[in-house]
Specification:
5 strands; about 240 residues; single chain; alpha/beta
Length: about 240
């Protein structure tokens, strides 16, 4: 499992990268491209209320000229249990202490497990040994599937659950270059890699035209990160008050 910068890889080395259209995944995409990976990007239409992120994911995939971009349809609304997929209000204007305590209703049950399972399957078909995901254990909203322990456990599972892993022809690595970084550090890294953050969205409850609410946990974490980095957030907001 990779947390920090890695040396460049041979050109054409295939990797599967989970691309949500958000700030973190855009930064990981730029990181992987700079390292020399031939990126196959994977996004999901899973019933999320913030589907504008898929438009941003497509734009980012085109901007970085990835080898292939696949959008998978899986409807997690059938299960509900989250403010992102069910009829539950998205929390707004929570303070930092509240965001640092407990698991919020915006947590989507098993989402990263599901997403990584799809990435694992595609990597096996491609003969790729590398999967990238933009999870972060510092400036985040308490999701259990963003922690190092989860990523380490999934990596072990992946190498037990695939033919290539069992036969020893490849060993899958799950790379998390942002895991130990603050949002400020992530933004600064993205700036150094040429990420245009106006192409990204972070909001859990955007307006129909895609403008961010400015008040959900994701918006607040993003805004704080840009403020701490001394940079204006180029995202379009409904109101910020």
């Amino acid at each position: 499992m990779t947390h920090t910068s890695a040396p460049s890889v041979p050109p054409g080395t295939r990797a599967v990268l989970l691309l949500s259209g958000g700030l973190d995944s855009a930064t990981v995409l730029a990181w992987a491209m700079r390292a020399g990976y031939a990126v196959h990007a994977l996004s999901f239409r899973y019933g999320q209320r913030h589907q504008v992120e898929l438009e941003r994911a497509r734009a980012l995939a085109a901007r970085f000229n990835v080898r292939q971009h696949v959008v998978c349809d899986i409807d997690l609304r059938q299960f509900g249990g989250s403010a992102l997929t069910g009829d539950i209000a998205v929390p707004k204007n929570r303070d930092a202490a509240s965001m640092a305590t407990g698991i919020p209703v915006t947590y989507v049950p098993a989402r990263n497990t599901i997403f990584l399972s799809f990435a694992m399957a595609w990597a096996e078909v491609l003969g790729a040994q590398d999967v990238f995901i933009g999870v972060n254990a510092l400036d985040y909203s308490g999701y259990p599937d963003c922690r190092p322990a989860f990523i380490e456990a999934f990596e072990r599972l992946a190498n037990l659950a695939t033919r290539t892993g069992v036969e020893g022809t490849t060993r899958l690595a799950v790379h998390t270059p942002l895991m130990e970084m603050t949002k400020r550090e992530i933004i600064q890294l993205g700036q150094s890699l040429g990420v245009d953050y106006s192409m990204t969205t972070s909001c859990y409850d955007p307006s129909p035209d895609g403008a961010a609410c400015g008040h959900c946990d994701a918006c607040q974490l993003r805004l704080r990160g840009f403020e701490q980095a001394g940079l204006p957030d180029p995202a379009r907001y409904q109101t910020v008050g």
